[in-house]
Design brief:
Blueprint: E1 2-7, H1 32-47, E2 69-72, H2 76-89, E3 94-95, E4 106-108, H3 110-113, E5 115-117, H4 123-129, H5 152-168, E6 175-180, H6 182-192, E7 210-215, E8 221-228
Parallel strand pairs: 1-6, 2-3, 2-6
Antiparallel strand pairs: 1-7, 4-5, 7-8
Helix pairs in contact: 1-2, 5-6
């Protein structure tokens, strides 16, 4: 199995300065630049042939990356990023709740109330905006997020479930793409290489950067490339 991990395009929270962080949106949409990034990565995945083996010059036969399944986080910025990707690939994005960003849907109300959780998009809201998406039962009528702020340890427990689910699919020849988030990607990669989430290293990803991991039937795993952004011009890099 080949796994392509794609960070969402630029969101409105991504452009906030530290001084503006108290104005963050609990579930931010994409910026105009982010919408451009999503369109560009969609064309790239559909039209550019990926290397069959990154240590050789052999490219796969046919156009595009050959992705079979497209999963995305239930957060607005990931849902929006997945839409042009799904259109370009002829795939219906499937919402995978467990690949949301660390923290969940929340706002920090300061010393008085602290970090307070909010419900996120409801099933009806998602289907109104993204009618072709495949939604799990976990996306309900009251919103998909039912908790408070999720700390890093909680994120790690969730990531371990995702890693195990991915390993269970490793014996197949499928190509799977995840549209997800920066901290989630960092914690997932650490889990896959048996590092704790607070280990003194970080796997950064630009918006719409692509990481590829090959899972082999014998249990071995190859990280073929990290944070690839060749599809973006300098003006689109963020």
């Amino acid at each position: 199995m080949k796994l392509y991990i794609i960070r969402h395009a630029q969101s409105t929270n991504n452009v906030l300065t530290e001084a503006e962080w108290n104005t963050r949106d609990s579930d931010p949409p994409l910026t105009a630049l982010g919408e451009q990034q999503a369109e560009v990565v969609a064309r790239h995945l559909a039209e550019t042939a990926d290397l069959e083996n990154p240590w050789s010059n052999h490219r796969r036969v046919g156009r595009g990356y050959g992705i079979d399944h497209l999963y995305c986080s239930p957060m607005a910025r990931a849902l929006q990023t997945a839409q042009p990707v799904g259109d370009a690939l002829g795939l219906n994005p499937e919402v995978w709740v467990d690949i949301h960003e660390q923290g969940g849907i929340y706002l920090n109300h300061g010393e008085e109330r602290g970090k307070v959780g909010y419900p996120g998009k409801s099933r009806g809201q998602m289907l109104d905006q993204f009618p072709s998406y495949i939604l799990p039962d976990a996306v309900g009528d009251e919103g998909w997020w039912t908790g408070d702020y999720e700390d890093l340890a909680g994120c790690h427990r969730r990531v371990l479930r995702v890693a195990e689910a991915l390993r269970r699919q490793a014996s197949g020849d499928e190509r799977i793409a995840l549209v997800t988030h920066g901290t989630f990607i960092d914690v997932l990669l650490k889990a896959l290489v048996n590092q704790l989430p607070d280990a003194p290293l970080f796997f950064p990803h630009y918006n719409t950067a692509i990481t590829r991991i090959d899972f082999r039937p014998d249990g071995h795993m190859a990280i073929c490339y990290l944070n690839k952004v060749g599809h973006l011009t300098a003006e689109l890099l963020s």
